[in-house]
Write a structure and sequence with these properties.
Largest sheet: 5 strands, antiparallel
Strand content: 15-25%
Number of helices: 19
Structural class: alpha+beta
Distance between the termini: 30 Å
Length: 600
């Protein structure tokens, strides 16, 4: 009882120390120490982490898509601006020719210029008296100015030669005669808008206006330094502006060229840039625009951060509530487990339920009720049963047949009187030693000692039966240290002599065999003489149970075996089996199967 009280005090002190010394962070460890909560919490964290990662990924992806759309819309507006500007230039050229051919003097001046050298044109103006009138060259200068200086070259293809008029962005012009191959090279530098020239319905040549698309594209696309533009005209391209295009590398722009569509570059070199591709079918050029993602995603990232912080806050709050709830349940479950651990060592500490009203509380109430019942059982039944079993063990240990001792002593005495032999003295010594072991040995001994006592008994029997009796013991060495109740083998051996052996000349043999069998130990005792009828054997085997063994007595064949079974049952409980059968070809076999403590 003092040990129970000490164990209870120790457990309560340890529990109090845990409660007093736990910091706030220990709330997590309280339930993470329990497998059921640890597994659930880890699964919860995994699911939340995956869910949060998916949300982050989708939000970031949507932000990129929104940024790409914003960038693409801006590029599309710039592209439409270039298209509108080129449309305006071609329209201005058409209007220019309409006015030109609508004025006889300007038309005449144009044909004087078309196909002539500069000196020939000057002589023609003087000859026709047009020197005081506005010249065609002046009209071309005005045309170029009206077109925002997008007209870089004007090529006049007559039947005899090619005249090239070149303009810069300041309006300065010069003109000269060029070779056809030079004209082809100049046409590849921009968009060519050609007008066929007829004089009195006779084709005399054409005029090609080479529009410098790069000027319009640079003005429209390169309004800031955060974008770069790759302009490609008739298979030849170049960068426009001073943006990050060269940082991106021509490989990305070349890839965009091949794709010929608007798309988000894969993250690599890396989600740093958006880009879009626009192709003009009317003016035969392609524009690849690239820009840094930052300026187009600031608003998206603000929304993204607000959303992610809100989700993170919700996750933290839910996790805090989760930890608060399950830490309380975890402490309560740990109290239940500690109480059960104490109960295994005999300390029945009741669980404090407090305000818990769930399945754990139901378990705790049942456990407290069980503790109360066990304490009552210990006081009223267990101690009484132990005391009774000890008395029965002591009584059964002394239930040796007194006639055996008397008859043996009488035989020894008669033989000693007749022969005066040393063997008699040895037999008497063995008998005294056997009696001493039976009376004074502890109730529980090793199998080695139990077999030694049995051997002493068999030696006496061999002395009594002289050369008519032999025995053999074959027990595995590893079994010798196993603990067992004392004096249960000797009554089994005595049963053979009592019921099977007669005073005749037949050789009588008894064999004891002990071996490990699976989770238990099997002992086999058999002789070579005797036989039991089937009905009698069935009756004997039915008596090998605790209730029949408790009755005891010597009123029928095999009653001593019943007492042997009961003594073994008191020690081994339900882990003992005993059976009797006939041995082939003759004799009786008694089999005892024992399971050691802790084995099922």
């Amino acid at each position: 009882m003092l040990q129970k009280v000490a164990a209870l005090c120790h457990n309560e002190h340890a529990a109090n120390c845990l409660k007093i010394g736990d910091p706030a962070i220990m709330k997590v460890s309280n339930f993470l120490q329990l497998k059921i909560y640890r597994r659930t919490f880890l699964i919860y964290l995994f699911i939340v982490t995956v869910f949060y990662a998916l949300i982050v990924y989708n939000c970031y992806r949507n932000a990129l898509i929104a940024g790409q759309q914003s960038f693409t819309e801006q590029i599309n507006r710039a592209f439409m601006q270039v298209e509108d500007e080129l449309d305006g230039v071609t329209g201005t050229i058409d209007n220019f020719f309409a006015r030109l051919f609508g004025s006889p003097s300007q038309k005449e001046d144009f044909f004087d210029f078309f196909g002539a050298s500069p000196s020939e044109y000057t002589e023609a103006r003087l000859r026709n008296g047009l020197a005081l009138y506005e010249s065609y060259l002046k009209n071309c200068d005005n045309l170029v100015a009206d077109c925002n200086y997008l007209i870089r070259y004007i090529l006049y293809y007559s039947t005899e030669n090619i005249l090239c008029m070149e303009y810069n962005q300041s309006g300065y012009s010069r003109y000269k005669m060029i070779e056809p191959w030079e004209g082809e090279a100049l046409c590849r530098t921009g968009y060519v808008y050609a007008k066929d020239i007829y004089s009195d319905s006779v084709y005399v040549g054409k005029v090609s206006f080479v529009l410098d698309i790069s000027i319009s594209a640079e003005n429209a696309f390169c309004g800031d330094r955060e974008k770069a533009v790759w302009l490609e005209i008739q298979g030849e391209g170049r960068f426009l502006g001073e943006g990050p295009g060269r940082d991106m590398g021509a490989d990305l722009l070349a890839e965009a060229e091949r794709m010929q569509e608007r798309f988000l570059l894969p993250l690599g070199k890396a989600g740093k840039y958006f880009h879009a591709v626009n192709t003009s079918e009317r003016y035969s050029y392609m524009v690849v625009a690239a820009g840094r993602t930052g300026p187009y995603m600031l608003e998206q990232f603000r929304k993204l951060w607000v959303l992610l912080l809100g989700l993170l806050l919700a996750f933290v709050l839910i996790t805090a509530l989760y930890i608060r709830q399950f830490s309380a349940d975890g402490r309560f479950l740990q109290d239940i487990l500690h109480s059960m651990e104490g109960a295994s060592s005999g300390s029945f500490r009741r669980v404090t339920i407090n305000r818990h009203n769930d399945e754990y509380a139901a378990i705790a109430r049942q456990l407290n009720g069980l503790y109360k019942y066990l304490e009552t059982l210990i006081r009223q039944k267990y101690e009484l049963t132990i005391s009774q079993q000890r008395a029965e063990m002591q009584m059964l240990s002394t239930q040796l047949n007194p006639h055996f001792l008397y008859n043996t002593l009488e035989r020894i005495r008669l033989r000693a009187l007749r022969d005066q032999n040393v063997e008699v003295a040895e037999a008497t010594a063995n008998l005294g030693l056997l009696y001493r072991n039976i009376v004074k040995t502890e109730p529980v001994i090793t199998l080695e000692k139990e077999i030694g006592i049995t051997r002493q008994y068999l030696e006496l029997m061999r002395f009594l039966y002289d050369d008519q009796f032999l025995y053999h013991c074959d027990v595995e060495e590893e079994l010798m240290a196993v603990l067992t109740p004392k004096i249960w083998m000797q009554p089994i051996m005595e049963n053979f002599f009592k019921h099977n052996f007669q005073e005749d000349d037949r050789i009588k043999i008894i064999v004891l065999k002990g071996e490990r069998l699976g989770a238990g130990i099997r002992f086999t005792f058999f002789d070579n003489i005797g036989h039991i009828g089937e009905e009698q054997m069935e009756l004997l085997n039915r008596r090998f149970n605790p209730e029949e063994g408790r009755k005891g007595g010597e009123d029928a064949r095999g009653i001593g075996l019943r007492n042997v079974y009961y003594r073994l049952w008191l020690y081994y409980g339900d882990k003992v089996r005993m059976k009797i059968r006939n041995n082939a070809p003759t004799g009786v076999c008694i089999e005892v199967l024992l399971r050691e403590e802790g084995e099922d």
